[in-house]
Write a structure and sequence with these properties.
Number of domains: 1
Shape: flat
Strand content: under 5%
Largest sheet: none
Mean pLDDT: 89
Helix content: over 70%
Number of helices: 3
Distance between the termini: 40 Å
Length: 78
Amino acid sequence: MAIPTMLGASLLKILKFGLTFTGIELIVLLVGMLISFLISILIIKFLMNYIKKHNFKPFGYYRIILGIVVLLYFFVMK
């Protein structure tokens, strides 16, 4: 679901920057996009396997502790 959004945002930035790329800049852009895409696929695959084998308890504890820390920070800094 994020791919069309990210593609649209990237296209807008490219249009805003201008389409005057040198050959090297275009190659760097394309290689960066390809590597980012491949790494994101690997990370998503890893996380889906992790979710299948583990539960969300550590994440829940982390979120509760982080929430308490953030609330304490803002109450103390007041």
